[in-house]
Amino acid sequence: MTNAEIINRSSFQRLRSKNIRRAVLRRLFYVLITAVLCLLFLVICAALFFKIQEIQVTGNAIYGADELLQISGVKVGQNLYSVSGRAVEARIKKACTYIRTVRMHRRLPSTLVIEVEEDTAEYFIELAGEYFALSADFRVLGRSDSKEEILRANPGIKFIAVPELRYCVVGSELVFRRQINLKVVEAVMADVKLWELYNLTDFVDISDKFNIKIIAGGGKYRILLGGREEMKLKLDFAKAIIESTLASGEYAQINVEKTDSAVITFGEEPFYVP
Q1: More exposed terminus of the chain, fewer Cβ within 10 Å: N or C?
Q2: 123-267 has which CATH code?
Q3: pTM for the complete prediction?
């Protein structure tokens, strides 16, 4: 093979590679131009056609739809895709502490749905003369200066006492000075809520996790439970004593700290609920 043949073949290979690169770049250029034009078309369509004509609010009971709509900041005439779900959620949850979650759905071509999930106040606590309503998972829903006011606003809510707190801020979960105490309170209240006499419960004192107490029956019964071990058995034991041993008009302290025996002390007046 001569030198001329080698040079010609090498030149041909370089030319061929150069043409292939040009063809690839040309195709990429056309793909990029097409993508940009499609994106521009979609943006123009969204701006012209996807205007909000109807806003629906669902899942609300505590707060009115008009109130939530005003807080959300969303208005008829806005573009469906210009509304930030995170911003709407942040505004609503900041202003409406009983709302747990906010979700936003778009129903093309012109409807925006704001779906909220509201919390229910299950318990309340007293702290430095103020009363705080709590959800089932101990998120602080609201505060009041009056025990009566918080009871009127939340029928059936249960008064509880908890171990020492670090923070109690409306809109956030309770923060205990010892975080393990949250688990203790959750476990105790999970058992107490399953108790068949839960509806008669006036006050649950878990401020000392080794000396848990319940006042029930409109102050007629004070039940000493000790620690949280075998809580369900102790509660069932106390229920059996109330239903089978005590007369309807009697006031009694029932000590079921030991599950194999109980100590009943009769009183003359109702037990004090703080």
Answers
A1: N
A2: 3.40.50.11690
A3: 0.77
> What is the per-residue pLDDT across 121-179, written as a single tens digit (0 to 9) for each?
999 999 999 999 999 999 999 999 999 999 998 999 999 999 999 999 999 999 999 99
> pLDDT digit string (tens) for 86-130?
999 999 999 999 999 999 999 988 899 999 999 999 999 999 999
What gap in Å lies between CA 221 and CA 201, rounded to an integer?
Answer: 9
For the chain, give every domain's residue range. Answer: 1-48, 54-118, 123-267
Parallel/antiparallel/unpaired status of strands 158-161 and 123-127? parallel
- Which fold would CATH assign to domain 54-118? Ubiquitin-like (UB roll) (3.10.20)
Structure-block tokens of residue 208: 């000392």
* 54-118 against 123-267: fold identical: no
Q: Is residue 152 within 8 Å of 177, Cβ to Cβ?
A: no
User: Tokens representing 252?
Assistant: 């009694």
